[in-house]
Design goal:
Blueprint: E1 15-19, H1 24-34, E2 39-44, H2 47-60, E3 66-69, H3 77-91, E4 96-99, H4 115-140, E5 147-151, H5 164-184, E6 191-196, H6 203-208, H7 224-230, E7 242-244
Parallel strand pairs: 1-2, 1-4, 2-3, 4-5, 5-6, 6-7
Length: 249
């Protein structure tokens, strides 16, 4: 895997839906890809934060961003179809879906884990990715180079004590990405990626590792080069759907 330098109009006229776009990695993706010309559809539940990011993007680029206010914990098929309809109306097609949104909620033993929190985490982290993928795939079939990108985690590969529903949701996302890859690869030019950003400065990271010095780990904007590669022609022939951040690149 060789990451390249891309021109600032690299993603011009590309329409990309990013979930969890109001903060952390999602915010960095929204701003970073806008810098390369992408029209970012920003999805999150905090519309005030999205308004600020929208203004920043409009001030620094000539792109056409869109805000979609949505709590993924309450996302159902009707709402997913509405989101797809709005994208179709405003953009005509979708080039990429970046399923990035996730919540941790609590770290607890399974014995002490309550059902309400369990279901909330699974709905937000996993079920939303299924629904948005299902309803936007028809829009991405109109793209010349469609992509679906999920945000992974080390606890997707091996469960760890006290990571509860979060770990289960990330393991589910890993399998969902593999299923989509197997279903779509032979019949279209879709590429599906499951990207593990590894240790990154986010609010969730600070909750999970309260004793860790945030200055010792990378900022979310360091991940943009990976998303650019996954959205490029260079990734089209890459066989592995699982990608990890590598410090030496």
């Amino acid at each position: 895997m060789q990451l390249s330098n891309y021109k600032k109009d690299f993603l011009k006229d590309k329409n990309i839906l990013v979930t969890g776009a109001s903060r952390g990695i999602g915010k960095a993706i929204a701003i970073g890809l806008s810098d390369y010309g992408a029209n970012i559809i920003m999805l999150a539940k905090n519309e005030n934060q999205l308004d600020q990011i929208y203004d920043e993007i409009k001030s620094n680029s000539e792109t056409n961003p869109l805000i979609v206010g949505c709590d993924l914990n309450t996302l159902d098929e009707n709402k997913a179809q509405e989101i797809a309809n709005v994208i179709s109306r405003d953009y005509g097609h979708l080039d990429a879906l970046i399923n990035n949104a996730a919540i941790l909620e609590r770290m607890s033993s399974i014995e002490d884990y309550d059902l309400q929190t369990w279901e909330k985490v699974l709905k937000t982290n996993l079920t939303s990715g299924f629904l948005l993928s299902k309803y936007t795939i028809p829009l991405m079939q109109l793209s010349s180079m469609p992509r679906i990108i999920f945000t992974s985690s080390s606890v997707a590969k091996k469960g760890k004590a006290y990571w509860g529903a979060y770990s289960v949701s990330k393991a589910g996302i890993k399998v969902l990405a593999e299923i989509l890859n197997d279903e779509l690869e032979s019949i279209s030019n879709f590429k599906i990626f499951n990207f593990d950003p590894k240790a990154t400065q986010t609010d969730m990271r600070s909750i999970a590792y309260p004793a860790e010095d945030p200055a010792s780990i990378k900022k979310p904007n360091k991940l943009i080069k990976y998303y650019l590669w996954m959205l490029s022609h260079e990734s089209s022939s890459f066989k592995n759907s699982h990608i990890e951040f590598e410090d030496e690149i």
